[in-house]
## 1
Amino acid sequence: MISCILKAKHKFLIALLFAVTASFGAWAQASDPANVATKGVEPEATAAASEPGAGADPAVISAGQALFRNNCAACHSAGSEVVVGPGLQGMSQRRNEAWLISWIKNSQALIQSGDADAIAVYEQYNKQAMPSFAFSDDEVKSIIAYVESGVDAAPAGGTATAAAADGSQPIGDQAIGAIGGYLDIILVVLIVVLIVLVVTLLLISSILKNYLNKNKQLDEYDHEIVNQRFDFSKVYKSSAVRTIVALIFVVVLIDLGLDKAMGIGIQQGYQPRQPIAFSHALHAGEHEINCNYCHTTVYESKNASIPSANICMNCHSQIKTESQEIQKIYRALERNKPIEWVRIHNLPDLAYFNHAQHTQVAGVECQTCHGPIQEMDVVYQYAPLTMGWCIDCHRETPLNTKGNGYYDNLVKLHEASSKGAFTVASNGGTECSKCHY
Ligand code: HEC
Ligand code: HEC
Ligand code: HEC
Ligand code: HEC
Ligand code: HEC
Ligand code: HEC
């Protein structure tokens, strides 16, 4: 008798599970963006759309993104909004690649050559001349690939520039964001499914219990089993359950602890308020003042140096003298006290780092280590400055030996003894004593 009921229950459960999985599958398929995209569009159009952008190398896309932000974002959005010029979304469907390349390199030349499309947009946008860009074909193609990738297509130009200011890598962030949103939906659906399952099971068990209680064939012992209550105190007292809970707790604690311990002394992202609202975006970005105009020793010595108030006065004895912020410079000079800039980058004393070796000898760009300083209104620490970070770069970076007599013999010796690239590491750049006193 019982076995017959149990079978019925099994069948019911299996049917229920089946239904739930099937409907979940259908939902997942319907909301898969790739599916939606390809369903609505003609096969031809899909091929055209995917030709330049989709499937392009992420490195090309992010190179294009950087070029776009630095050169185009002031006038164009990567979406469809008009800023100064038209939104560039779908530009490679409107125009062919050769047209785009010659337009971007020199739009005026194209207009003067009598190209009808060029004249049409030019007139549509009130004959505003777009500047020319001395890009290579590949650079233009990378911009096209970036725009077609749709990475920043949704937001308008304003958002694109706002994202540029934070200097992070929005491609990765956005992709992760999209996947994150997707996972959230799946999680919610799974939880709902679980709750439905639990409720159904409870219902089934109470129906079964009622039915069995009415059944005359059961003896005392069967009744006892049927009416058994779920005993939480037993679960609580069970040593197995306690051990498992304790284990999970300990693992989580250790994980958190390790994360914190590894992070000690790492100040990536540190962005203190400075005593004067000095902006690199304004000075090094907009006004293109060279870094070493202010950081005078960065190519010659260990330290880059922070400019004294006198250097500011080269310009600010004339410029913006009425500004509150500039008057702070005058006050510092009157009192003969240095401006108290808050130091951002700071290696522990046990490590030795030399700017001249990296900027002058190796020719590493400031931005490689300090990020897009020329876009920062307030400077923040871009790199982690950990030992692993230094060593990783030393392992990957070939030495800049061209025109450096010091390396002539070493290059010959290296070529004789090893086939690999002549990296900083192969020249001893990972020996402890190079960086530790
Ligand atoms: C100073 C503003 C400005 C900048 C910077 C600028 N553009 Fe333009 N762009 C325009 C204007 C305005 C037009 C509309 C045509 C015209 O008036 O010349 C245009 C038109 C275009 C078109 C033609 C669009 C179409 O629908 O045919 C393309 C493509 C384009 N720009 C790409 C770029 C790229 C790529 C960059 C960066 C490398 C860039 N532009 C930088 C102002 C600018
Ligand atoms: C007009 C002068 C000026 C120019 C040009 C300038 N800087 Fe600075 N820089 C400063 C001043 C002042 C500070 C200290 C205040 C601050 O952190 O904003 C500073 C701070 C910094 C810091 C942080 C130092 C710390 O405390 O760890 C870095 C890194 C830096 N600059 C890099 C650059 C780079 C790279 C460039 C060129 C792209 C540049 N600077 C151009 C004046 C200048
Ligand atoms: C090579 C010239 C030059 C030097 C050197 C220079 N500045 Fe400037 N600074 C400018 C220019 C140009 C502006 C923009 C003025 C404007 O917006 O009209 C400016 C603007 C500013 C502003 C914004 C003022 C406001 O109220 O809008 C501050 C603050 C400032 N500078 C601080 C400094 C400090 C601090 C130093 C020294 C570390 C310094 N500047 C060195 C050229 C310079
Ligand atoms: C290879 C990486 C690297 C490069 C390239 C680099 N820096 Fe630095 N920079 C650092 C590190 C690391 C520190 C922290 C140094 C310390 O605490 O001793 C630092 C500190 C600074 C500081 C704070 C003051 C000081 O001297 O400690 C300034 C300003 C600065 N850098 C400017 C520049 C400028 C300008 C350039 C380009 C001309 C540049 N840096 C290139 C890694 C780099
Ligand atoms: C972006 C890449 C990069 C990063 C990051 C970097 N370095 Fe270097 N480093 C180089 C290159 C390239 C050279 C080779 C310069 C030369 O030709 O002498 C070098 C050389 C050195 C040397 C001299 C090595 C020798 O063989 O004489 C020291 C010391 C050094 N780096 C310390 C550091 C420290 C400390 C850090 C981290 C705070 C660091 N570097 C981060 C690229 C890097
Ligand atoms: C390219 C430069 C470089 C080389 C080579 C290097 N270190 Fe470091 N080391 C650093 C820097 C920079 C720090 C400080 C950054 C930090 O605290 O993470 C550091 C920190 C340390 C610390 C302190 C760790 C802490 O958390 O305070 C120890 C210990 C250390 N290094 C040992 C070594 C040993 C052993 C070697 C040789 C196998 C070595 N280092 C080689 C750059 C280097």
## 2
Amino acid sequence: MKTIYLRRAFKNRCPRCGEGKVLKDIYSREENCSSCALEYNRENGFFLGGVPVNYGLVCTFWIVPWLTVYFFGIVPVVLVVVMSILGAIAFTYLGYAYCQCLWLGLYFCFAEHEMPLLAEPVENR
Ligand SMILES: [Zn+2]
């Protein structure tokens, strides 16, 4: 497992070279790396892997905290349901492209043998 690919994806950088950006803006991503020309899309439907990444992050960092404060009786159930639904919609809309970027890093982290090699090696950044 090569975590450098995931660390580069966290910083919105190409998993292979660490130079080019993966995301154009908050809603869209580049097709290829501007530095090493790595094609980000591995196959049709590849970036659907961003869905479970987004789901996991929204559940972990939004839904579960709301359920926790409800469990301790701090907020009423109506507020928990409304905030969970609103947050799930908003964070899915705002974070889906970034989760696709994280998926790209996760994919190469666990499937490092599928990473096309560079002509010259890049040092760990
Ligand atoms: Zn690159």
